[in-house]
Amino acid sequence: MKLNEISRLPVQLAALGIVGAVLAALLTGAPWARAAENELTAVSTSHRTVVDASQYPWSAVGRVNISGVGTRSHCTGALIGERLVLTAAHCLYYRSTKRYVAPQLVHFVAGYQRGDFIAHSIANQIIPAKGFDGEAWAAPTNMEHDWALIILREPIGLKTGYLGFQALDQATLDNLTADSRFFSLAGYPRDRAHAISVDQKCNIVGFLGQGELLSHSCQIVGGDSGAPIAIPTETGGLQVIGLNSATNVPLTDGTTTNTAVPIRTILELVEKAIRHTEVAPGIGPGIQRPGKPPSP
Questions:
Q1: Sequence-separated (6 or more) residues with CB below 8 Å from residue 3
Q2: Residue 99: how many CB atoms within 10 A of its CB?
Q3: What is the pLDDT of residues 18-58, one digit of tens each?
Q4: What is the pLDDT of residue 11?
Q5: 243, CA 20 to 30 Å: which among 90, 117, 211, 212?
Q6: pTM of the prediction?
Q7: Mean pLDDT lowest for which of 14-28, 60-74, 218-232?
Q8: Planar angle of CA 89, 183, 143, nearest 5 degrees
Q9: Closest to 161 measured CA to CA, from 61, 244, 75, 283
Q10: Phi and psi, residue 82, nearest 5°
Q11: Greatest CA separation found in the chain?
């Protein structure tokens, strides 16, 4: 499937419709509002399952909360290092001001659930893809650049743990498919914005173009932008292979797909960021590494 097979019909980014949905709750000591009790049990996205955000690996997934002047929004992000969060670029860009949000307005809340959380840090730096055009938004040529790294002020990954990552190539995908292995996506969708829920039976349909994008079947709604798509490991961890970007992307053959940015396309920058922010990065062959549970 080629990138030019993506139709130029309007595309729905996974974060659309969330602006204004989050209320600040600084008075309670939590960065964001405490959710209603029934949000953890209300299921409106079919087979997605609410999981315990206090337990690894889910503790390494969190909300990317953005607080601007007169506006609030959120996406999903995942710690892939002590201070490094992976999310979508469009989550950090304000078309109203034609610029990226200031780092000090970006809060990452890890292991968040019903107003409780494991750890929190303000961003120290945001690194969006150089090729992402905020004004083009969901144009087909923009999708492969819809990723961003957030470097946090505090190394909260030591407390929450962080996820592993690996490059997914066609041969690995073929082997996983032959073994009937599923992928997972964990995020904070707008219908359950205060509880992490997981689609544990995703399929990666294949690569688009020369591997610039992944086509996937994970069940997603608004708020899931930037959510990690990962391979569950035998030890109960997760190896991130991509990050969710858009849903209902129309193809020229009349079908639609969901898209994700494969982490293999940004491994070089991920490696540099980890080496810059960690004393003992432990990057393995092929620029990949396993996840790490919370420190005792």
A1: 140, 141, 144, 208, 209, 212, 213
A2: 11
A3: 322 222 222 223 333 323 323 333 334 667 899 999 999 99
A4: 56
A5: 117
A6: 0.85
A7: 14-28
A8: 25
A9: 61
A10: -60, -35
A11: 52
Distance of CA 9 to the CA centre of its chain: 24
- Output the six-digit token pair for 248: 């209902």
- SS3 annotation, the chain: CCHHHECCCCCEECCCCCCCCCCECHHHCCCECCCCHHHHCCCCCCCCEECCCCCCCHHHEEEEEEEECCEEEEEEEEECCCCEEEECHHHHEECCCCEECCHHHEEEEECCECCECCEEEEEEEEEECCCCCCCCCCCHHHHHHCCEEEEECCCCHHHHCECEECCCCHHHHHHHHHCCCCEEEEECCHHHCCCCEEEEEECEEEEECCCCEEEECCCCCCCCCCCEEEEECCCCCEEEEEEEEEEEEEECCCCEEEEEEEHHHHHHHHHHHHHHHCCCCCCECCCEECCECCCC
Of 126, 140, 119, which Cα lies nearest the Cα of 84? 126
**The residue count for the chain:** 296
Question: Which pair of tokens denotes residue 68?
Answer: 């601007």
**Tokens coding 138:** 């969901």
| CA dist list (Å): 160 to 10, 28, 175 | 38, 22, 31
On whether the CB atoms of residues 259 and 216 are closer than 8 A, the answer is: yes
> From the centroid of its chain, how far is CA 234?
22
pLDDT at 234 over 60: yes
Distances in whole angstroms, Cα of residue 28 to Cα of each of 16, 25, 116, 188, 192: 28, 6, 10, 21, 20
CA distances from 44 to 49, 192, 218 (A): 10, 8, 15
More confident: 293 or 248 = 293
Can you give the pLDDT at residue 16?
40
**In this predicted structure, which of 148-162, 172-186, 241-255 has the lowest mean pLDDT?**
241-255
Query: What single-letter amino acid sits at 129?
Result: A
Tokens 């946090």, residue? 152
Q: State residue 22's pLDDT score.
A: 26
